[in-house]
Backbone:
């Protein structure tokens, strides 16, 4: 992971600032997205953990969060505390850091594509009427091309590094939340419905959409704008410099995508299709269960 942050520190462009040296809003918007996502992630996850802990405590009998064998000599509250501690550490020291790290890397890379697009939109507006202007233009053009190539390599490195754990996480999440949606549909009490609802909210909305699908979609959209901005810029007014521009336009035909293990693309379309599939499978399970109950 250190290589990602070293490259971020050494190769990422700084957002432009106004005359007073203040940020124009790009970093503030990025920080707001990260802070808001982290806050709601932790808030809903904490509510889910507290609900899962309180339901067994206030239920009749020695019920645990998860059905498990309790060896002789292990008290009820020790077993309950062990399960609660396991869930807490699993989420806040395992899942949460991974999800937020992935979202932050994608969001920061998206910001870099945004800064590159802003530079490209003004690149060919320069008046090349003297040698100094031509030299400055060539320097900026070379800088843009180099940064675009770096961002392509950086995005590919993110995809390759996170590919296996991301695919495993998404497949596991699909199965778990399909079953949890089924349990929500079959809930016989408010406590059981609330428990399942919070679990689904954390997994589907906060993790699957806010941390994975939406940041990946924003990255793809912003990266695809590079070719569009170059094509609609007045580059044809400078035919001597058209060769590198045409090469960039040709390279932009291949979209920047996050595809874990080459199985599926992370995007809003894929995310919504997965949610529809979860609902469909959970309803199918409920129907099968109802039919089995009638036969008995």
Residues:
């Amino acid at each position: 992971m250190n290589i990602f942050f070293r490259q971020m520190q050494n190769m990422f462009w700084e957002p432009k600032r106004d005359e007073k040296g203040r940020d124009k809003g790009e970093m503030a918007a990025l920080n707001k997205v990260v802070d808001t996502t982290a806050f709601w992630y932790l808030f809903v996850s904490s509510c889910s953990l507290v609900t899962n802990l309180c339901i067994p405590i206030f239920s009749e009998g020695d019920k645990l969060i998860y059905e498990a064998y309790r060896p002789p000599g292990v008290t009820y509250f020790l077993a309950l505390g062990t399960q609660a501690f396991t869930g807490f550490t699993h989420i806040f020291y395992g899942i949460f850091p991974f999800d937020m790290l992935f979202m932050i890397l994608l969001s920061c890379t998206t910001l870099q594509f945004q800064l590159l697009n802003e530079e490209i939109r003004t690149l060919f507006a320069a008046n090349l009427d003297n040698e100094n202007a031509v030299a400055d233009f060539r320097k900026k053009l070379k800088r843009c091309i180099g940064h675009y190539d770096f961002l392509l390599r950086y995005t590919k490195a993110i995809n390759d590094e996170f590919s296996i754990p991301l695919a495993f996480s998404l497949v596991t999440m699909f199965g778990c939340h399909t079953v949890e949606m089924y349990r929500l549909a079959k809930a016989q009490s408010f406590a059981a419905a609330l428990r399942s609802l919070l679990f689904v909210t954390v997994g589907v909305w906060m993790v699957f959409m806010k941390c994975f699908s939406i940041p990946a979609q924003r990255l793809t959209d912003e990266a695809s704008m590079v070719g569009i901005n170059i094509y609609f810029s007045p580059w044809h007014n400078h035919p001597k410099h058209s060769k590198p521009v045409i090469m960039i336009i040709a390279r932009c035909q291949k979209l920047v995508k996050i595809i874990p293990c080459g199985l599926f693309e992370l995007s809003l379309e894929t995310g919504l299709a997965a949610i529809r599939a979860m609902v469909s499978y959970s309803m199918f399970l409920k129907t099968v269960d109802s039919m089995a109950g009638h036969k008995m």
